[in-house]
Sequence to fold (370 residues):
Amino acid sequence: MKKLISVLLAAVILFPAFSTSAGAVSTSAVSSCLIEAETGEVLFAENADERRAMASTTKIMTAILTIEAGDLDREFTVDEFAIMVEGTSMGLKKGDRVSRRDLLYGILLPSGNDAANAAAVSVSGSISAFVKLMNEKAAALGLANTHFVTPSGLDADGHYTTARDLAALAAYAMKNELFREIVSCRSKELEYGNPPYPRTLYNSNKMLVKYNGAIGVKTGFTDNARRCLVSAAERDGVTLIAVTLNDGDDWNDHIKMLDYGFEQVSACPLDTSCTAKVSVAGTGKSVGVYAEKATLALSVENRAKLERFVLLPRMVYGNVKKGDKLGSIAYCLNGKTVKSVPLYAAETVDEGARELNIFQKILGFFGIYV
Fold:
């Protein structure tokens, strides 16, 4: 009996230590969320769906819309009223000439409110029109708990998001090569103004120097929102996005969250084999397919849930060249496609290699070959 009691006491003593090492991360944030960027798998969350002010993390949306608007290198004169805004600045003055590309660095590195407003007017003609575009994009991305009022993130009634929505937005933005390149810069030398002169913009995101593998994304602070941070890090084929809203110890909390995430997820090789063949109409031949090797970052739990579907047409028309994309393999979690790997033609099949009479062509139209 004494032996049994001793074992039970030992289990009680050890259990808290075990649950801490295996489970939740403790943060100072009011709201937080940690996801794997490619699949969107949520690895950690606290109050992740609570609507909160998000300060300059707003500029993730402002920047990605500016990039998607294109025409990045055309120079123009900034709107003098747009740049008359309080808070952080890239130093724009009345009459300055810049490009949208310059403004992107001003938006994402020093978090310039003047740059955000100037970009908004450049893209949409007015700040109000750009804000409408921001909300349309949020709806298109499925960010149901997000609403924008300003391009800069300055406090305003009805300007809010959630940690979960912000993580999803950051994951979307980080798929854009230019956005990813800019947010990973610690500093950037530019020339703009009237006349232009050289200056250096510095990134306010200290995670770039504090964390091994950090690749962005955006800081934020207002009196209402307090300290907000979105960070991304990449290691061994795994990309994580961490978000904290109203967090007085955000740098350390993001380090803990990212460390935890990399313990939970690893890049797993995918089965990309495919023995199916596709008929080439009018040739009496079929062509095999192949896919490049691929990986997907998955937790142990999701590895067992991953489903694989081969998507190929029954036949294709015209000449097929080796390397032509004919289909794909879709990898799904919980009914949602999280990765698609292209399937390519394994060889060339020339439709003209066989001369068909009109009768054969008609039969071929119906999938009958003679």
Notes: Residues 2-22 form the longest helix (21 residues).
